Amino acid sequence: MNRNFALWEYLFIQYLKRDWKKIVFWIVGLGLFCGGFIPFFEEIAKGDGLLGMYETMQNPAMISIVGPTPIRDPQAYTIGAMYSNEMLLFCGLFAFIISVMHVVGHTRREEDLGLQELIRSFRVGREANALAVMVETVLINLVLALFVCGLMVSFNLTGIDGTGSLLFGLSIAMLGIVGAVVGLLMAQIMSTSAGAIGGSIALLIVLYIVRATTDISNVSLSMMNPLGWGYLTYPFVENNWLPIVYALLFTIVGIFVAFVLESKRDMQDGYIPQFEGNAHASKRMLSVPGMFWRITRGTNIAWLVGFVVMGAAYGSVYADMQAFLNSNELMQQMFTVQGISIEVSFTATIMFVVQGLAIILPIVVINKLYHEERRGHLSQIFSTKVSRYQLYWSVIGLAIVLSFVANVAGSLGLGGTALASMSHTTMTLQDFLGAGLNYFTIFLFFIGLGGLCIGFAPRLGKLLYLYLGYSFMVSYFLNLLNLPEWVNNTSALNWVSRVPMEAFDISSFMIVGVIGLTMMLIGAFAYRKRDLHEGV
């Protein structure tokens, strides 16, 4: 038994040394996201904000998104109750996904690269690597829990006490640990790291959909769902520690099963064999656009479906929009404009949220090109008659088409649900489509930025997510923060008019679009000239 785990502590120390930058970013970044929005929620709670938010969260659509609250008396809905109700599930989801990526990256992916075979050539136990990774991940999540707890307590607000803050942090940590266990199990079952990550995320999506149903119909059934062990602790309300115990038991059993599975399989093998595929490629695979679509098909479809669901979720809020906005001065400042109807001004803000998130998809597609380049796959393509230009423009073209589809999908999801939930309104579905398509030029701008990165410095492609997040925050709090004009202009999302609240500005639409297309052209020339970055 000890031989199977020989030198695990040595691997554990080495992983801490190797991953320390990632760990710091993980704990601080996710910790600030989980516990750093309390001042914003404090502003929301002013006046009748808590009452308005409570009524909004009773909407079945909102329950399906963020989960239920056990509170039945609106007067008992405190800042802490509101914060855990709205934030806990999504914070847990982030912790789950990050832990999955970390564990699979240190287990199955290292097997794919042949690193584990090299390590096992020394006096290292068969399960030593898995144990070291799990201990590291558990430790990271526990430190994250303490960081979140300390951050929340530091705000010194009534309704957010130490016990509730500790439970809030531990709930997030336990979902992260559960994610690590799921990732470890999938690393044994699947034959590749991509399959392990895909299987883990697919399971997460299924669990999320199931809990969305049970939270509405019978919340007690959600306690049998691993995701329920996170948000059903009800911090600051009931402080229910029982789900933590369930998660702990699942962790112990899951790790034991994973060790057994690993001991029974061969290196670089899995219990579900890798799909060998067809003997002959379809005609679509014989073209460069068809090939790249096939590579990104799963991601593209998942994102597009997600945009429709997201739009529909935001659209369902329109039913309670009037009461919610009238209950709080801060919300009125963010979502309404004097002289404009509430649904029109609300649509202008929500639409930029939907489209801002949709911009992530083309960025993912463009960065996928560099990902395949690093893995050495493109040299095989360029050994044929396929040129750099042909591959570059195929990827850019796919990103543009997906941008248009995502734009329309989010607009239709939002508009269709909003119109169905409002009994009296002058808005039409064309208004929502127009408001969404107004942002299509911003999609082109970000695709152009991605093209420049691919052409000159492909490693900077991930910074596009950072700039998009910055633009999103500046635009979202535009009316609330009263930022200087030059700061507002640094956000690309502010470069077009906010339709339907404002008239469509054809000049800004065309200028931003031309800038985006110009950057695509420059990126194409640069991509043709630079060296490939393979195996870096």
Structural features, described:
By secondary structure, this protein is mostly helical. The chain folds into two domains: 1-269, no CATH class; 284-536, no CATH class. 71% of the residues lie in helices and 0% in strands. The longest helix has 34 residues, at 388-421. It is globular and about 70 Å long. The model has no long low-confidence stretch (mean pLDDT 85).
List key phrases describing it:
single chain; 2 domains; 536 residues; globular; 0% strand; mainly alpha; 25 helices
Coarse morphology:
globular
Share of β-strand residues:
under 5%
- Rounded mean pLDDT is 85
C-alpha termini separation: 38 Å
What ranges have pLDDT less than 50 throughout 5 or more consecutive residues? none
Secondary-structure map with pairings?
Elements: H1 8-35, H2 38-44, H3 49-57, H4 60-66, H5 79-106, H6 108-112, H7 115-120, H8 128-154, H9 162-189, H10 193-217, H11 228-231, H12 242-264, H13 288-316, H14 321-326, H15 329-335, H16 342-358, H17 360-374, H18 378-382, H19 388-421, H20 429-437, H21 440-456, H22 463-476, H23 478-481, H24 485-488, H25 506-529
